[in-house]
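ugh ok so i messed up the first submission bc i forgot one of the chains. this is the corrected input, ALL of the components this time, i swear. 111 residues overall. if the numbers dont match what u have on ur side tell me asap before i send this to the collaborators (the ones from the other lab, u know who)
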Amino acid sequence: MKQWVHVILQVFIFLLVYYLLDLKSAAVVTSAHFIPTIDFLMLKLGVLGGMHRRLFHNIFAAGIASLLYYQLFGPLIGLLGFLNMIFHFALDLTGRGIAIFYPLSEYRLRL
Ligand SMILES: [Zn+2]
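and heres the new structure output, hopefully the right one now
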């Protein structure tokens, strides 16, 4: 999925969480969606370019990031952050798909 689609959808997620909770929670939950984007930025910077949709687009990276969010911001934000990363993965299932179990497997989940 194109990056601008991620951004537009996250504007809606941000506004929804801001409406339901508060500004800080909205910012943190929205930031979780862009954690997998780190490997896209690495590709653009020429650092570990082959890791796009692998290094941060897997269930283990999402789990670790969610635990970090849980510890820093509490269980609700940890859960919402995890769901927002899964939402990111769902958007990336087109094309090459994502290596959902990387580094254990190179299997690519895709539509
Ligand atoms: Zn992605």
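quick check: Residues 36-37, 40, 57, 88, 92 surround zinc ion (CB under 6 Å). that seems consistent at least. The chain has a mean pLDDT of 93.
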